[in-house]
Amino acid sequence: ASGSNLEAWVAGLPEPRASLWDQLPRLEAVPALGELGPVFEGAELCPCRPGEAAALAQLEAFCDGGSAIPLFQYEPSRNIPGEAGTSALSAALKFGTLSPRQAWAAAQQARAVAMALGGAEEALASITVWEQELAWREFYQQALFHFPELAEGPYRPQWKHFPWENHQGRYEAWCEGLTGMPIVDAAMRQLNASGWMHNRCRMVVASYLVKDLICDWRWGESAFMARLVDGDLAANNGGWQWSASSGMDPKPLRIFNPATQASKFDPDASYIRTWLPELRHVATRDLLSGEIAPLERRGYPAPIVSHKQQQARFKALYAALPKG
């Protein structure tokens, strides 16, 4: 064996074959972004615009819009899904094209303007509410940093034992906007079409999935992250745990009545009609309540569950959880 090694060493390595660069095999050219076509066909329906320049322009329009500053009307309009009453900066904050410090500084400048104009109570209250929303976002970032286990499960340990029903068919109906509850379906259709959903509606559909359909909140959390342009792990997780009553919020149990939410925040059903065009002919009161006559449905599904019955069932399951 040693002789063979010696012979190989003396012989040396074979002479490498050199090739000119233009004789090397070539890979196919990578297509340009424009050649790929639209990545998301509903982009024009989403109020968020990409890039730093767009983010700064939106921040200025929201906080320093001349004689009519949208931020000054934020508090009364932020919960109305049919109006453009929010900042539409969530995606910019998620992707870092706008920093929380920039948003906070703009709020302080707007506060100075409001004070110079006489300190209108509504304007100052609106600025404070928006600052609180920014603080909520940062709170969820800090919570996930200090409690990384939140990404996998509930903050409140007793919720690890909750007997979720996890009905696959009901979950799919929720995802597709086919639950038979118009405000829920309108919101999910908006999400599926645009990659964005109004914050009030996020709370409504989350409560419906968790406490009407009794599906694990992590199913909804994953569905949102797969669809939201502004999907942020910490904020999304915090919002879903808030809706599920499994998070850090001090109120132990909160159940939204979707009909009540629709009546309060979409009283003319304009938002519902926008995203459920097949129901535009239905009377407003029926759209809000979800109690639509069979002949009026025209293919739209009947409610897949009764809110009253499911609310009672959820409360009973919740009451059986271990305390602490």
Q: Would you summarize the structure shown here?
A:
Helices cover 53% and strands 0% of the residues.
CATH topology of the largest domain: DNA Cyclobutane Dipyrimidine Photolyase, subunit A, domain 3
Helix content range of the residues, please?
A: 40-55%
**Fraction in beta strands:** under 5%
Give a quick account of the main beta sheet: strands, pairing sense, barrel closure.
Answer: none
CATH class membership of the largest domain: Mainly Alpha
Gyration radius over CA? 27 Å
List SSEs in N-to-C order: HHHHHHHHHHHHHHHH
Model description:
- With about 325 residues, the chain is an all-alpha fold.
- It has two domains: about 50-145, Serine Threonine Protein Phosphatase 5, Tetratricopeptide repeat (Alpha Horseshoe); about 160-320, DNA Cyclobutane Dipyrimidine Photolyase, subunit A, domain 3, CATH 1.10.579.10.
- It has helices at about 1-10, 50-65, 75, 90-95, 100-115, 120-145, 170-175, 180-195, 200-210, 215-225, 235-245, 260-265, 270-275, 285-290, 295, 305-320.
- Helix 8 (about 180-195) crosses helix 9 (about 200-210).
- The longest helix is centred in the middle third of the chain and has 26 residues, at about 120-145.
- The model has no long low-confidence stretch (mean pLDDT about 90).
Write the layout of secondary structure elements.
Elements lengths: L1 H10 L40 H12 L10 H4 L12 H6 L4 H17 L4 H26 L21 H9 L5 H13 L4 H14 L4 H11 L5 H12 L13 H8 L4 H6 L8 H6 L4 H4 L9 H13 L5
Helix pairs in contact: 5-6, 6-11, 8-9, 9-11, 10-11
